[in-house]
Each structure stands twice: as C-alpha cells, then as structure tokens.
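Sequence, please.
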C-alpha cells in the first residue's frame, strides 16, 4: 500500500494555481481559495464579498515559525555548554529535542517531493510547532516575581498584606511573569483569529474589509 501511494504521488506532475512550496509554509506565504459566493443568500448588495480560504491565524502561525528557532537555540546552547562541561543539560532538553525532531521530520521530507503540494501538508509539523511555542515561553520567560523582595518588604512596612491587597498577592506569585506573557499572547492570538475568521467561515463583508485582510498579496 505504501509503495502504491508513493508510485501514485510520484506520477503527479501537473501543477496547481494554489499550490505552494515547502519553504513557504512556516510563514503561511500561500493559502488556498476554497469557495467564492456568487449569489444570494451568501452575498448581498451591502456585503458583496464572501470567500472561504484554507488559512491559519497569522500571528499564531508566525509565532509557531519563530518558536522552533528559539528552542533550537536553547538546545544548541545546552549541547555546547555540555561539551565545555559548564553544566548539565536543562531538565527539559530531551523534551525540546523530541518536539524539534517531530517538527522537522514532518516538514523537511517535502523537500524531496516533486508533486504539487499545499499548505495543509504542513499541518502535522504545525502541531509540533504550537507545542514549541509553549516550550519557548517556558524556556525564555523566567519564573520570577513581578516585584522585588525589597518592594514586598516596603509594602509590608506600610501596612499592606496579601490578603488586603490583591495586586500584592498576585505580584508575589512565582509564575506571574509567565502568566502575564501567556495572557498577552492569548489576547493577541484571539484578536487576530476574530479578525481573520470571516475568511475561514465565508462571512459576507464589504470589498474594503476583504482587501484589509490580505496582508500578503499571495493570499488573495
């Protein structure tokens, strides 16, 4: 069965207008147009544009493109430190290495594929890349207090306590910086998703709103 799949795919030589190359996928440089509304009730005079694209949320996709690079840099640094006997590898070194392996092994073989390919072929690698976003957040954002111990002592001297001051209690949490960074990313990703959702769900909109969502000309 695997041989027949390989043989059938190798025989596909014809290109496609919405096809894309493997190196375009991490930055989502090419999408796929699935559907265009041509009549009511899918479009109206006031909202004449309705389309469905195969595309991701740009900020999520681009964060997923940056994360493997950041985690790879940490892994290389850990290996070099080990070679120089500066210290032992970080606790999560092998987990990061496994995620990087999964990301690359699902993506790089497409270098050898001659048949037309599409952005959805990158989805298995994207799953690993999204896990690497969390790994990068864990590796680069320290587990620290948002205020210093001296500021805590000063607040206590002023008569403030964690039970009476919610901000003080929150600031004394050890993972507060990570929670803050994660919250910013979640709000950013959710806002970006809401902005681009009409292109995924075929929501009618004006032509101006449609054009505003084509941040790359290759998406259109």
């Amino acid at each position: 069965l695997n041989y027949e799949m390989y043989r059938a795919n190798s025989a596909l030589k014809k290109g496609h207008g919405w096809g894309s190359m493997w190196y375009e996928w991490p930055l989502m440089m090419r999408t796929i147009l699935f559907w265009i509304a041509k009549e009511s009730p899918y479009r109206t005079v006031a909202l004449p544009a309705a389309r469905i694209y195969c595309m991701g949320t740009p900020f999520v996709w681009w964060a997923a493109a940056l994360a493997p690079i950041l985690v790879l840099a940490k892994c290389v640094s850990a290996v070099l430190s080990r070679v120089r006997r500066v210290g032992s590898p970080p606790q999560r070194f092998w987990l990061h290495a496994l995620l990087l392996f999964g990301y690359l092994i699902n993506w790089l073989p497409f270098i050898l594929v001659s048949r037309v390919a599409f952005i959805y072929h990158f989805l298995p690698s994207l799953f690993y890349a999204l896990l690497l976003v969390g790994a990068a957040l864990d590796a680069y954002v320290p587990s620290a207090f948002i205020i210093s111990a001296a500021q805590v002592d000063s607040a206590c001297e002023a008569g403030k306590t964690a039970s009476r001051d919610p901000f003080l209690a929150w600031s004394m949490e050890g993972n507060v910086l990570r929670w803050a960074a994660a919250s910013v990313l979640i709000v950013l990703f959710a806002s970006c998703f809401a902005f681009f959702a009409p292109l995924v769900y075929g929501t009618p909109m004006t032509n101006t709103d449609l054009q505003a969502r084509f941040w790359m000309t290759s998406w259109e």
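The CA atoms of residues 48 and 77 lie 53 Å apart.
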